[in-house]
């Protein structure tokens, strides 16, 4: 009998240790609210290799989970399993990904009928603080602001059994501020400030940019031509001794980059139209856009 009690006690201690370990790991992120409110620079990483079509894998921190080849509101709705109106509560950073804690106020689509108004969920934003002066953004979307409602287009990360963690369905169109007047800041790489010459990091005045709702990258066909030239050069550099599978894989990836660049260059016209269509359908807003050039 005593032996049985000892075994039971040991098992209980093991379970408690595991639970405490899980609790500790779940809170191992760094709160980023202060950094996001005081950072000096905002940098954008717009690598055309990241704009890949979404495959069957919806893993964490993988380009495969995003679909940036959509061109309109209807496609955005189809590619998103859930569409909510949310408000940002707080952020926690895990390495190069920020987990935004948000509160749902309206449900526009929920394929599996998981959530309702007032539920709390977590959205992984593709922006993160590098240090106290820099926020790196791997998306064309600005980070969500507190006290601002957003319509968000999401896909659940099914690896989390509690059904509370979501990825943006696209890095270009998945967050829309709920406002009748949307302010736009147009920026170009020529106006970026050099932050770190060794790492070739360039950025913009964060506090200035964050006063706006949307950001418009001023690009032209020269960007696409540069991508084509680089791709042609890389195609010619594939070694003759490369196996057929490697050759085909490299060729497809390089050619896809040119296709993806076309979508990237056209993203902002699509984004404005998606904003108009979404806010018209969900709120009956006729959106007014006010665009200003970056002048810092």
Descriptors:
296 residues; alpha+beta; OB fold (Dihydrolipoamide Acetyltransferase, E2P); five-stranded mixed sheet; 7 helices; 15 strands; 33% helix; 30% strand; globular; disordered N terminus
How does this model look, in words?
A hairpin with an 8-residue loop joins strand 8 (149-156) and strand 9 (165-168). This protein is α+β, with helices and mostly antiparallel strands. It is built from seven helices and 15 strands. Strands 3-4-5-9-8 form a five-stranded mixed β-barrel. The chain has a five-stranded mixed β-sheet with strand order 6-7-2-13-12. The protein has a three-stranded parallel β-sheet with strand order 14-11-15, with no helix packed on it. Helix 5 packs antiparallel against helix 6 (244-265). The protein has one domain (30-293): OB fold (Dihydrolipoamide Acetyltransferase, E2P), CATH 2.40.50.120.
Examine the secondary-structure arrangement and name the CATH architecture. Answer: Beta Barrel
Class by alpha and beta content: alpha+beta
Q: Class in CATH?
A: Mainly Beta
Question: What percent of the residues sit in helical stretches (DSSP H or I)?
Answer: 25-40%
In the sheet with the most strands, the strands line up as: 3-4-5-9-8
Envelope shape? globular
How many structural domains can be distinguished in the coordinates? 1
Outline of the structure:
With 296 residues, this protein is α+β, with helices and mostly antiparallel strands. It has helices at residues 2-26, 33-38, 73-79, 206-209, 221-236, 244-265, 267-283, and strands at 30-31, 41-44, 82-94, 97-110, 120-125, 127-131, 134-137, 149-156, 165-168, 175-177, 181-187, 193-196, 201-205, 214-217, 288-293. The chain has a single domain (30-293), classed as OB fold (Dihydrolipoamide Acetyltransferase, E2P), CATH 2.40.50.120.
């Amino acid at each position: 009998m005593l032996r049985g009690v000892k075994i039971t006690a040991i098992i209980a201690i093991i379970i408690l240790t595991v639970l405490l370990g899980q609790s500790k790991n779940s809170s191992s992120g760094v709160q980023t609210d202060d950094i996001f409110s005081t950072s000096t620079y905002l940098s954008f990483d717009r690598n055309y290799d990241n704009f890949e079509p979404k495959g069957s894998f919806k893993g964490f921190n993988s380009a495969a989970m995003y679909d940036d080849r959509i061109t309109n509101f209807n496609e955005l709705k189809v590619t998103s399993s859930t569409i909510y109106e949310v408000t940002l509560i707080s952020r926690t950073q895990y390495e190069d990904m920020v987990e935004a804690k948000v509160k749902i106020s309206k449900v526009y689509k929920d394929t599996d009928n998981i959530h309702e108004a007032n539920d709390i969920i977590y959205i992984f934003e593709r922006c993160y603080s590098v240090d106290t002066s820099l926020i790196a953004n791997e998306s064309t979307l600005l980070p969500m602001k507190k006290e601002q409602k957003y319509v968000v287009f999401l896909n659940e990360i099914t690896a989390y059994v509690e059904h509370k963690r979501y990825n943006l369905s696209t890095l270009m169109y998945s967050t829309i501020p709920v406002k009748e007047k949307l302010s736009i800041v147009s920026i170009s790489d020529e106006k970026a400030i050099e932050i770190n010459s060794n790492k070739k990091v360039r950025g913009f005045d964060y506090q200035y940019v964050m006063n706006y709702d949307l950001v418009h990258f001023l690009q032209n066909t020269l960007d696409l031509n540069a991508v084509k030239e680089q791709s042609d050069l890389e195609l010619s550099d594939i070694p003759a001794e490369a196996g057929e599978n490697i050759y085909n894989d490299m060729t497809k990836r390089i050619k896809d980059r040119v296709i993806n660049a076309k979508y990237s260059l056209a993203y902002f016209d699509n984004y404005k139209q998606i904003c108009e269509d979404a806010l018209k359908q969900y709120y009956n807003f006729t959106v007014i856009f006010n665009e200003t050039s970056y002048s810092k």
